[in-house]
Amino acid sequence: AWAAENSVKAASVSAELLYGVAARIGGRRLTDDPGWRHFAEKGAVLLEHDDPFVRGIAAWALIAVRDANQGMRPQPDTPDWMAKCLALEPETSLECDFVLQAIGLGDYRTTRGLVRSAENIVRRAGALASYAQSCGGDQRRQRLDAALETLKQVHGRQPGRKPPTDLAGQRKWWMDVRRAARDVVLAGPDIDFNEVVFFQAPVRTEGNHPDGLVQNHDRPKERGPGGDVLVQMGIGPTDPVRPLIAGQLGPGHVQDMDLWWDADRLVFAYVRQPDWGNGQSSWGSVSWRNGPAVTVFDHVVGFRDGVFWENGSEPTHLYEINLDGTGLRQLTNDKLYCDREPAYLPNGDVVFSSDRGCGASQCGAAPLAYSDFGLPNLFRVSADGKRVERLTYNKDVDRYPHCLSNGLIGYMRWDYQERFWQWPHSLWTIRPDGTMNDGLFKSHFNEPQSVREPRSIPGSDKLVVIATGHHAPPEGAVAVVDPSLGVNNPEGLRYVTPSCSPLEGGLGSCPTVAEGGVPDRGGLYRTPWPLSEKGFLVSYACHYPGKTRYAAYYIDVWGNKELIRRDPVMDVLCPMPVRKRPRPATPPSH
């Protein structure tokens, strides 16, 4: 019956029914269930429907089920509906992203809603274009003016004509408006680069505690092996990519990375996993690393040739590689502890977080769950990898270091001194030599509970951060911080994505950016890279109604949001523009 359906409204109901069922079942593995398989096979017919919203809604329904079956790639026995979903044409993938955003905002079921949505799209793109008139050269302004004129023509169809009044025609018109608006946004002044670098990693294993929980720095093995660091030659999701590691390190996955100021090399954290899967991977704690092999909460750990192994994984090490794929070299090689979150310093050294400090958390009462003597502090490795020195001596947690534009290291500090247990995360700075450790922002106000990933905004003293909860991974809302307004002034933090999924503790009293920010309906952000005070590259996972993989996006303060890269089965993280930027001066020592 679905295959013979000609009515757009009826096909839309069918697609939304499929979408609703997929959302309701969540992450259940149903590909072997005959009833669901029949339902999905019928739904796959809708992928070929003439209406873009019917196609898009059906695609996201099937994607939700595909994501419940982690790691599925085309195989000889892949079901037909799954094969169609995995083989979506590139343009359809971009179209699906437009539909996903429209689903979240809810203005797609009626002609009136589509008109309202199109007006908002044109307004947001127009606001960017108006701002851009004072930025960039004549050639860029000409390109932007041409794209804006095309958007206006598409929005008005032709002078004197209104958009179509039928639902099918208006949906196609809306899609044309959405494509034209994308051209305006990507012609903006912040998109002054031709390549993007990011890494792809498998999603975390089902049933585990989220990787990166703030005190559990040594829980990076909850993702299996796979992915790579990739350079995308263009800024569209259909542009080709080239892998950098390309199997040189064997099975494993990338965890964090940073780009050198000349944009010709990067440093990254990598965990080798040659024996991944030997034992159950459940969240627990690795205790007594100097003792015999133990199993804690079904988490298999032990020693082999003097190296501490956990669930078939080595400790995480730091590596450097050129952006042409040459020059791969290892910087750290500790046999017991994990080195993560590397960031370049102006002289070529690398600051990173590591659980080498052997600190034990005072959080919680369960000794096995929290007493693994591996809380991260900040360390520094010389450019040649020969010397490692400790920078911070926090009894709790120091993480997410980045070199700021003034040469200081900005990072998240967990400090219980004069603080309630739920609000101890604030921004601090320290010199690269380990001196002048001092608070920078949010020392004594409560929400958001945690601010992480501080990066300097070009040409500004402001920072971009991720605001999140105390117990959460580094995912939440994108915000801009202005420390000059006061170390404890909530007005100094403004949300760019105020409509993300609820955070532990809430957003608090901090305002939204004056331009309004991104109009999401849920979802979480991570790894923000500031292009300016107005625009950012981010990774985003939609949460309406189910969670998608993380994908790379451009977002701005006016609410424009454009897909850069999405992978069918992996998270896309740490998108960075391949362009040079000024190298900070090194602060004086002592």
Question: What would your notes on this structure say?
Answer:
This protein is globular. The strands form 7 sheets. The protein has a 4-stranded antiparallel β-sheet with strand order 3-2-1-27, with no helix packed on it. Helix 1 (8-25) packs parallel to helix 3. Helices cover 23% and strands 26% of the residues. The relative contact order is 0.10. The N and C termini lie far apart (77 Å). The protein has 590 residues and is of the alpha+beta class. The protein is built from 9 helices and 27 strands.
What is the general shape?
A: globular
Bin the strand percentage: 25-35%
Rounded to the nearest angstrom, the distance between the terminal CA atoms is 77 Å
Number of strands: 27
Whole-number mean pLDDT: 84
Largest β sheet strand count, sense and barrel closure? 4 strands, antiparallel
Helix content: 10-25%
**Class by SSE composition:** alpha+beta
Q: How many DSSP helices?
A: 9
How are the strands of the largest sheet arranged?
Answer: 3-2-1-27
Low-confidence stretches: 1-5, 206-212, 279-299, 365-371
What Rg, in angstroms, do the CA atoms define?
24 Å
Quick description:
Helix content is 23%, strand content 26%. It has helices at residues 8-25, 34-45, 52-68, 80-86, 90-105, 111-132, 138-156, 167-186, 367-370; strands at 196-202, 228-232, 241-243, 252-259, 265-272, 295-296, 299-304, 307-310, 317-322, 329-330, 339-344, 350-359, 375-381, 388-390, 397-403, 409-414, 425-430, 438-441, 450-456, 463-468, 477-481, 493-495, 524-530, 535-541, 551-556, 561-565, 570-577.
